[in-house]
Amino acid sequence: MPRWEYQDRRERVCLIPIPRLTNLRAKARDASVYISGGLFALGWWFFIDAVICSKSWDPENGPKPVSVEFVDWVPGICSTLGMI
Length: 84
Known about the structure:
- It holds the Pfam family UPF0220.
- Its main location: membrane.
- The chain crosses the membrane at residues 31-48.
- It is a multi-pass membrane protein.
- By secondary structure, the chain is mostly helical.
- Helix content is 64%, strand content 0%.
- It is elongated and about 65 Å long.
- The protein has helices spanning 6-11, 22-55, 70-83.
């Protein structure tokens, strides 16, 4: 375990020595891009599922009390345009 001097401690935010993984560092950007894209797609998947569930209804029970309107679509549209 390397020893940290006082000068190093003033410049560092995390004072706990963390070992560097050289193999992971080269692929970290690629992995984070894929993970963020997957989370973005998963968020849209859940939203589309909620839209479908809110619009579908059982004829015996009538329409569901929750509905998804255009106002609910605006954050998703803006984040999609921001992602592009």
